[in-house]
Amino acid sequence: MGYRGLDISGKVCLVTGGTSGLGWAIARGLAEAGASVVVGSSNPQKVAAAQARLGAGHDAIAVDVTDEAAVGAAVDHVVRRYGRLDAAVNAAGIIRRQPSLEMTVADFRRIVDVNLVGTFVVDQAAGRVMKEQAPDAADQRGVIVNIASLNSFISLSEVLAYAAGKSGVMGLTRGLANEWAQYGIRVNGIAPGVFPTDLNRPLIEGTPRGEWLRRHTPLNRFGRAEEIVGAAIYLISPAASFTTGETIVVDGGFLARGV
Fold first, then answer.
1. Which of 99, 131, 139, 154 has a CA that sits 20 to 30 A from residue 185's CA?
2. d(CA 101, CA 183)
3. Closest CA to 240 of 188, 174, 167
4. Would 158 be classed as within a structural domain?
């Protein structure tokens, strides 16, 4: 039959922040790979559009990742419709470029709340369900994939709250992987390099900052959204059955290039 380790057909996957940007690229890629995909977003218009684009067999729901009740309801919705939850991908995030001396505590708290606390809220709700469901053929009960960032490893200027939150995401990923392995739940992360999306396009396209980021990338270009999908498929698939607590960097060599 050949090697089937990367086969995710039939997997049920929830992707928060899955209606735009890298979240949408991942959601679409998982669907094309045969998974049943539910995307979540706090924007009702984006939810409706994503539902139409994904088509039959998939779903889209409105969910604010900072709202515990809403996240719990979203996870329950997935389980009611599909019978289980095999994977949760946390791609919801916000960013704002601002000098730290001008940032209000409210601004800092909001960004960390979405990027870090929201990731924990989704992880916890998904983990509670996964812990109680029957294991699959690879003897795992569920997989969580958190979207980290280059800012989890290094500091890019004037995005302090984003960097703090994404650094926390990588620590959260390691901690939950260590704690939840006993339940048959693997927890990993993906740290994208520079990928133009609606979230960051004003910061990097046609700007000195963007030109520096491109030149610092050994492949000498920005990433294309579809280039993030393979890492997600791998981490969700049986091929990654012995991979947990890791954050895979997909950055065109950015971190490998020093001074």
1. 154
2. 44
3. 188
4. yes
Q: Return the C-alpha torsion angle 76, 167, 232, 28, nearest 10.
A: 70
- Examine the residue annotation and report whether 183 is marked as an active-site residue of this protein: no
Whether pTM exceeds 0.90: yes
Residue 74 identity (one-letter amino acid): A
- Cα-Cα-Cα-Cα dihedral of 138, 78, 162, 50, to 10°? 110
**Annotated catalytic residue within 82, 162, 183, 234:** 162
Print the domain residue range for 118.
12-193+233-247
Q: Please report, to the nearest 10 degrees, the dihedral formed by the alpha carbons of residues 229, 70, 179, 153 taken in order.
A: 50
**Lookup result for tokens 């940032």:** 103
For residue 241, the domain's CATH number is 3.40.50.720
53, 158, 220, 254 from 150: Cα distances, Å: 30, 14, 16, 8
Q: Are 159 and 151 in contact (CB under 8 A)?
A: yes
Is 176 contained in some domain?
yes
Instruction: For 123, list phi and psi in degrees, rounded to 5.
Output: -55, -45
pLDDT in tens, 108-158: 999 999 999 999 999 999 999 999 999 987 789 999 999 999 999 998 899
Distance CA 199, CA 69 (A): 26
- Say how far apart CA 130 and CA 140 lie, in whole Å: 9
The amino acid at residue 258 is G
* Spatial separation of the C-alpha atoms in residues 215 and 123, rounded to whole Å: 35
Let me know how long the chain is.
259
